[in-house]
């Protein structure tokens, strides 16, 4: 299917899908700077001392790391965020990761992304990929 076919046969919102690399690639897009100090500042708020991350020393941050394991209060952990761009993973992986309720996800839409060579992007199961090149099972899979 070419890009012309996309506009001729499909919804106008459709677009050509992104290239999927052979191996997964993870890129940190953005993240909380000095997350341990941020969490320690929030932790101090539970003790009635309201400070910013800049007010927290390295020693205070380490003390927080030791103390937080003694409590069931998880809110300080929620103050830290990381934005990752993950490419080259299978659709079943993305379906499992989006089930997590502790994060926000955006994934390429299967309704609007048109794959030109989708068969080449289907991952080979590890049980088959480790077989020799002339193995009948590998030939049938390919």
Question: How far from one another are the termini?
Answer: 21 Å
Instruction: Determine the mean pLDDT.
Output: 80
Largest sheet, in brief, is: 2 strands, parallel
Main-sheet strand order equals 1-4
What is the count of structural domains? Answer: 3
Tell me roughly what share of residues is in helical segments: 25-40%
Structural topology:
Elements: H1 3-9, E1 15-16, E2 25-31, H2 35-46, H3 58-68, E3 82-87, H4 91-97, E4 113-114, H5 126-129, H6 136-141
Parallel strand pairs: 1-4
Antiparallel strand pairs: 2-3
Give your account of this protein's structure:
The two termini are 21 Å apart. The protein has helices at 3-9, 35-46, 58-68, 91-97, 126-129, 136-141; strands spanning 15-16, 25-31, 82-87, 113-114. It is built from six helices and four strands, in the order αββααβαβαα. The chain has 142 residues and is α+β, with helices and mostly antiparallel strands. The protein has three domains: 1-18 and 108-142, no CATH class; 21-32 and 81-106, no CATH class; 34-77, no CATH class.
């Amino acid at each position: 299917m070419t890009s012309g076919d996309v506009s001729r046969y499909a919804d106008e919102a459709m677009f050509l899908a992104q290239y999927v690399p052979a191996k997964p690639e993870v890129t940190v897009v953005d993240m909380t700077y000095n997350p341990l100090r941020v969490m320690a500042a929030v932790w101090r708020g539970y003790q009635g001392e309201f400070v910013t991350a800049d007010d927290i020393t390295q020693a205070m941050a380490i003390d927080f790391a030791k103390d937080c394991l003694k409590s069931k209060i998880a809110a300080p952990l929620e103050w830290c965020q990381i934005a990752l761009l993950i490419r080259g993973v299978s659709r079943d992986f993305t379906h499992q990761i989006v089930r997590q309720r502790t994060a926000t996800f955006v994934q390429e839409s299967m309704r609007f992304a048109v794959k030109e060579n989708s068969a080449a992007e289907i991952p080979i199961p590890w049980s088959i990929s480790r077989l020799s090149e002339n193995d009948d099972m590998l030939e049938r899979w390919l």
